[in-house]
Amino acid sequence: MSLDNIKSRIVKSEAEAGRAPGSVKLIAVSKVQPNERVAAVLDQGHRVFGENRVQEAAGKWPAFREQYSDIDLHIIGPLQSNKTRQAMELAQSIHTIDRAKLAKAIARIAQEIGSCPSLFVQVNTGEEEQKAGIIPAQTDAFVAECRALDLPIEGLMCIPPVEEEPSLHFALLAKLAERNGLTGLSMGMSGDFESAIALGATHVRVGSAIFGARVPASA
Ligand SMILES: *Cc1c(COP(=O)(O)O)cnc(C)c1O
Question: pTM for this structure?
């Protein structure tokens, strides 16, 4: 339980990287955490949260939002097409745009409901078979496709392979974002958010270092 600890480490990393104070947004990843742990973090004044399943987010956040109207919710897990509308209605940001079908669905629903969350394109920087995301070589074309649909693409997101040095992946993501004129970089988790900040992260997604180890899901 150390929101303050993580916040001060972020401030320190921003300073060390010569970045403006407050340039990194801390997304507290609350997936699978008991509600009382989430409530404790809300109590401490934090409002930015991440969930990786739409279903779980839908069961948890509408009630918290009744208490705190300024919650900033980010969907950071793979998004099934049939959950797109629900995700857009629940969240202020979606980090996992990774295919044309999803981009088109978001564009259509945004027209209908008259609003759209801010969006990140997920890049599979390690080109891992089992992982979601656009491969690096297709990123420029996919970003262009999203822009042609008028989608509000804020930046890129990645989850480095567990076995590899994350900073190589962070550097690659930063390079891809820069050459596409994108300023948002969603990268860095509990174990590596400081090196992500050194390489330009604007959004770090930190779960267990704030909330403690995840309680295993029963379902
Ligand atoms: C769970 C998760 C995180 C947070 O992981 P921790 O190691 O607990 O900080 C970050 N990003 C994504 C996409 C996740 O699913």
Answer: 0.96
Q: Label residue 206 exposed, middle or buried (CB < 10 Å: 0-12, 13-18, 19+).
A: buried
Place of tokens 């970089």: 185
- Both tokens of 179, joined, read 């050459």
Q: 148 C-alpha vs ligand 1 centroid, how far in Å? A: 30
The predicted-structure confidence for 54-91, as pLDDT tens digits, reads as follows: 999 999 999 999 999 999 999 999 999 999 999 999 99
> 166 CB under 6 A from ligand 1?
no
Q: Is 13 inside a domain boundary?
A: yes
Q: Does 208 contact ligand 1 (Cβ within 6 A)?
A: yes
Q: Which of 37, 73, 76 to mutate to test the pocket of ligand 1 (most atoms within 8 A of CB)?
A: 76
46 assigned to some structural domain = yes
Helix then strand then coil, in percent of the chain rounded to 5, is 45, 15, 40
- For the stretch 136-193, pLDDT in tens is 999 999 999 999 999 999 999 999 999 999 999 999 999 999 999 999 999 999 999 9
Range of the domain at 198: 3-208
Contact indicator for 156, 135 with CB cutoff of 8 Å: no
Beta strands in 117-175, from DSSP E residues, in sequence order: 118-122, 153-157
